[in-house]
Amino acid sequence: MAEFEIKPEFYNYVFSPYLEPAIRINCGDTVVFHTEDAFESRIKTFDDLPSKALKTAKFLNPQTGPVYINGVEPGDTLVADFKSIEFTRNWAVSAVIEYFGGLQSNDITRTLQAPLKEKVWLWKVVDDGKAFYNEEMRIKIPAAPFCGTCATAPDLEAIQALTPGPFGGNMDVPDVKPGNKIYLPVWNPGGLFYIGDCHGAQGQGELCGVALEITAKATVTFDVIKGQTINWPRIESPDKIMAIGSAKPMEDAARIAYAELIKWMGDYGFSPEEGYQICTQAGGLYVGNMVDTVYSLVASIDKRYLKRL
Amino acid sequence: MAEFEIKPEFYNYVFSPYLEPAIRINCGDTVVFHTEDAFESRIKTFDDLPSKALKTAKFLNPQTGPVYINGVEPGDTLVADFKSIEFTRNWAVSAVIEYFGGLQSNDITRTLQAPLKEKVWLWKVVDDGKAFYNEEMRIKIPAAPFCGTCATAPDLEAIQALTPGPFGGNMDVPDVKPGNKIYLPVWNPGGLFYIGDCHGAQGQGELCGVALEITAKATVTFDVIKGQTINWPRIESPDKIMAIGSAKPMEDAARIAYAELIKWMGDYGFSPEEGYQICTQAGGLYVGNMVDTVYSLVASIDKRYLKRL
Amino acid sequence: MAEFEIKPEFYNYVFSPYLEPAIRINCGDTVVFHTEDAFESRIKTFDDLPSKALKTAKFLNPQTGPVYINGVEPGDTLVADFKSIEFTRNWAVSAVIEYFGGLQSNDITRTLQAPLKEKVWLWKVVDDGKAFYNEEMRIKIPAAPFCGTCATAPDLEAIQALTPGPFGGNMDVPDVKPGNKIYLPVWNPGGLFYIGDCHGAQGQGELCGVALEITAKATVTFDVIKGQTINWPRIESPDKIMAIGSAKPMEDAARIAYAELIKWMGDYGFSPEEGYQICTQAGGLYVGNMVDTVYSLVASIDKRYLKRL
Amino acid sequence: MAEFEIKPEFYNYVFSPYLEPAIRINCGDTVVFHTEDAFESRIKTFDDLPSKALKTAKFLNPQTGPVYINGVEPGDTLVADFKSIEFTRNWAVSAVIEYFGGLQSNDITRTLQAPLKEKVWLWKVVDDGKAFYNEEMRIKIPAAPFCGTCATAPDLEAIQALTPGPFGGNMDVPDVKPGNKIYLPVWNPGGLFYIGDCHGAQGQGELCGVALEITAKATVTFDVIKGQTINWPRIESPDKIMAIGSAKPMEDAARIAYAELIKWMGDYGFSPEEGYQICTQAGGLYVGNMVDTVYSLVASIDKRYLKRL
Questions:
Q1: ipTM over 0.90
Q2: Which stretch of DSSP H or E encloses residue C257?
Q3: Torsion of CA A273, A277, A279, A282, to 10 degrees
Q4: pLDDT in tens, C45-78
């Protein structure tokens, strides 16, 4: 039950089975991860327009890790129990970036139109870290920190850190937060856990593509479920179980999320037919991101519907 | 401020500008609508399998209306203030229908696979109308009634009652419920309001395509915003403003919903750039239906973010 | 075997079962249809920018018809044998329209970006009607006339003339051309055939959304296949059979097109498994339009693969 | 101008910058690649049903390479001039695989339905290699060999060999064939060229997901365009220039393909506005595959439209 701290000197930009572990730990151990923001802190002022400030960045979304968890093997499920997230600076940044975001054409959804005008949005941490305040708009939003990315290394592939998928990755799902357990598939010995991209808060969909990006310390305790194989990430909160699907078009992400949730309900004694019916009448389905290389949707069911009367 | 009651002898299956009004009322008047279920009560027992029971149904999703509201003209916004929904029988029905629903191929998303096995699910109204109970699964779900469809007649077109769109229609959005106001575009004199498809409760996405279908009495008070033109349906709850987009693929529905919400935020003094930023950090985005001819998503923002500090 | 001519004084903008027939004919009769261009000839010069020239147009894509074909009943298949298309003026027009077209955001695929700059493109009919020439670019393109729209009236619904679907409609498929037979489902007595939107030529996809729009005379001979029910439009050329699917996302249109083609191959004695295999190895699949309210794809198989050796 | 031959002892299943080159050559050199079929020849008889025969295959679609081409650097364009493809056995295989293919639900487009029934299709090479014959159906199809995959290594990422993308990969585009030049972006020194997945013939869309899979020898001559950066693969045939987009939903692939083609037309002196107009009236757009992890579409323009009169 040891506790470790990882404060990287350099970051990775890929969820890869080919990188050396930053640390090797045991199940039950806790790691405090220092995470950079998605721009590696290159945008600090209104004048750091993305087209200029990100010129020196060959890749985005720096990741801390990977962590090798002893005893974790392919076919197991890795459990990442999120204990806390603390901000390590007193401001967050968002931005409108050219040809990026939910209401702009981009590299994949191409148009011939001019991009949106770039803009940097700065938000101060206020109220003892409980809120963010933007002076320009005079708007305050409660802090609700979570990690935009957490992943195990994929099988065979090395995937850039801007992508979500079966391995987790850049899901931008607000429920990857303290108090919740994240379950991830394992394809490589040690699992090889990556984490990064802390968001101080984020709406559903992460509309402009840039949440309240901030540096942070994320504290996670690791465990394993031996011999239980899952195909996509799952989340357990005190009240709900949730499954995440990441795909395009968005309906495919929705289908994956609900199909995986129904599979999970099987562990509680519900047939697929029953799961299908219960989710129809009582399931939740929200959009985590509609901006990344593929979109992430979260299907959920309240735990009270997992027990028969 | 008169109150009227409509108990149809026959129903319409189309949102159409070509049908005679069932009634003509004034702004401020209230109408109690008796609504049939989506199957026109053809499925009552386990043995009423859809492939058999629906053979006599040329069309589905019967609608009550249209209501002609005096003084409402093209270019106005119709306000439907949902006062209450009462069930008019003590059971609801759901079903798995061949080649229909979110986890099944269908007429548009075609495969060569066999359909899912049909099944009828019956749910009893219990707890004085506050819950539904399914004996087969021994599962109880709180009642949360709303109208799956409400619409104004489209411009020029007559659209079948299974379709959602700019006119509202078969959105299957749980926020079309008592306590909320629904705003609809107006293309025809009198607005021509249709309503139906009461759901006793429904999860987000309406996964299998059939919620807790039940007959009901829906009480709605009508008003108009003269000269205010909107392009898509909107909802106002005590706490939130919401915009609904209906389209395929689902990301298009998401884009419409957020773009319309940002436009609405303009009425509160926020520029599109500000609306885009606030929705990014604090917006909500859930799936109403992922089963109809196009999908409906709901974008929302809490009213507390509509005031500058 | 009579021949008729329809030169409308006014046009329809909707594929509707609710309109009076322009003419009643018998199977075997031929009709010469005068068709307007999609803008009803409002754009004639470089200065007729769409935002200005189309202000007086409440609807676009005027249709000639409907034709009532005696003896044609719901459940039959209507056969429209395209005999010829002649241009009735010596120029065609294309245009870039704001928020419309394949490489621009639009009413459904929304962004916050500014639209493309409008522009009118004029093309002269040259080489005795065999080609189009654009002086500005000094580019010549062979004429390949076809009808962007042809439809039977839908069942119950009235659908605007910009939409393709099971009823045909605004498919913008270059194979709806002289020498080919178009097969359409029938939902209403008389079939109620509409036609319009002649294109002097068009690339696959109709990329900017506006082909070489031109007024024309289209000559069509009608026939019926009694008691044969089809669900989507089909085309027969001297060499190929083709099925058209119209849907969004585009993969759904592709699935419909191939699924319907495989069904058609059943008439030639091939099982679905065989059809699936033959289409895999020898099928054609091109994009008709990627710009309309839904997209149209054409799946085809060469007739030589419809006979076993 | 040397000629080399690569007959691998083992294959790669990933397009990766992390693998050792199989060979290092110079620009102008020619390589004869021996390629395995997508199943690594595990399916040889009717009884080798995929669920059984592929059990020993952790990965599919074996690739030959990578080839390191001296002098090729990031930012250049690699030219792969396809000289010939010869079959190295006298039969090809196709199959229906459970939960795979264009008319079946799959791992991403999920349903709860049972899969299609598996089936192996065997096709004999006949007519001196000029055709394929299937005895079961008594159908003969002309040979039209091409490589389903060819790729340069991606930037940073390692991508499984079943995926198409900006790097080329599993595009399943029939125009990757002898007589045509394939242009690929370069992100790594030497380019790192992979090739495999020869198809004896294939329809557009590769409908069931398995074309006429066959082992082969592909002969390719390599060249480089120094300092010319492209973002997606391109093809040049004697008559046409073509651009390939790979994405989901399919309309995104279509947008990429046409946007890249218009960019390429810029090299011929056409502005984007002109390219947009010419493609609208004369472009080609067909579906390469509608079955891989993302779909590949090919936009083309005839070379005669690249010269002003």
A1: yes
A2: helix C250-266
A3: -150
A4: 999 999 999 999 999 999 999 999 999 999 999 9
Over residues B106-116, the pLDDT tens digits come to 999 999 999 99
CB contact under 8 A, A249 and D247: no
Q: Tell me whether residues B115 and D113 touch, CB distance under 8 A.
A: yes
The neighbour count for residue C51, using CB atoms within 10 Å, is 10
Distance CA B132, CA A137 (A): 46
Give C195's Cβ-side CA count (13 Å radius).
33
Domains of chain D: 22-304 (2.60.120.580)
Distance CA C146, CA C198 (A): 6
The DSSP element (H or E) to which C15 belongs, if any, is: strand C14-15
Give the tokens for residue C39.
């803008």
Q: Does B60 touch chain C (CB under 8 A)?
A: no
Q: For A200-250, write each residue's pLDDT tens digit.
A: 999 999 999 999 999 999 999 999 999 999 999 999 999 999 999 999 999
- Smallest CA–CA distance, residue B48 to chain D, in Å, is 22
Average pLDDT over residues C256-285: 98
- The identity of residue B270, as a single letter, is F
| Angle between helices B250-265 and A250-265 in degrees, nearest 10 | 110
Q: What separation, in Å, do the N-terminal and C-terminal C-alpha atoms of chain C show?
A: 39
Q: What are the φ and ψ backbone dihedral angles of B138, each rounded to 5 degrees?
A: 60, 50
Per residue in C181-192, pLDDT (tens digit) is 999 999 999 999
Burial bucket for residue B73 (CB in 10 Å: 0-12, 13-18, 19+): middle
According to DSSP, residue D227 is labeled: T
Q: What is d(CA B233, CA B147) in angstroms, rounded to the nearest whole number?
A: 14
DSSP B90: S
Tokens of B288: 């109403």
Tokens of D66: 């990578």
Look up the pTM and report it.
Answer: 0.98
Closest CA to A139 of B240, B264, B280, C112: B280
Tens digit of each residue's pLDDT (9 = 90 or more) over A261-306? 999 999 999 999 999 999 999 999 999 999 999 999 999 999 999 9
Cα–Cα distance between B36 and B21 in angstroms, integer?
18
Q: Which residue reads 């081409």 in tokens?
A: D69
For testing contact with chain B, the best of C106, C156, C246 (most B CBs within 10 A): C156
Q: Which amino acid is at D106?
A: N
Nearest Cα to D178, choosing from D30, D4, D9, D10?
A: D30
Please state the separation of Cα D272 from the chain's center in Å: 28
Please report how the helices C250-266 and C272-282 are oriented relative to each other, as an axis angle in degrees rounded to 10.
Answer: 120
Tell me the C-alpha to C-alpha distance, in Å, between residue C121 and each of C133, C140, C197, D283. 11, 13, 17, 16
* The two structure tokens encoding residue C213: 């729009």
Beta-bridge mates of residue C284: C300
- Sign of the Cα torsion B272, B277, B280, B285 reads negative
Residues, chain C, total? 309
Mean pLDDT by runs of 10 across the 309 residues of chain D is 96 98 98 98 97 95 98 98 98 98 98 98 98 98 98 98 98 98 98 98 98 98 98 98 98 98 98 98 98 98 97
Which of A113, A116, A207, A248 has the highest number of chain C CBs within 10 A, making it the mutation to test binding with C? A113
Q: Are A164 and A60 in contact (CB under 8 A)?
A: no
Question: A206: which 2 tokens?
Answer: 């992460």
Which is it for strands B63-70 and B23-26: parallel, antiparallel or unpaired? parallel
* C-beta atoms of B105 and D111 within 8 A: yes
Burial label, B133 (beta-carbon count in 10 A; 0-12, 13-18, 19+) = middle
Over residues A14-50, the pLDDT tens digits come to 999 999 999 999 999 999 999 999 999 999 999 999 9
CA-CA distance, B30 to B85, in Å (whole number)?
Answer: 13
Q: Express each pLDDT in A252-261 by its tens digit.
A: 999 999 999 9
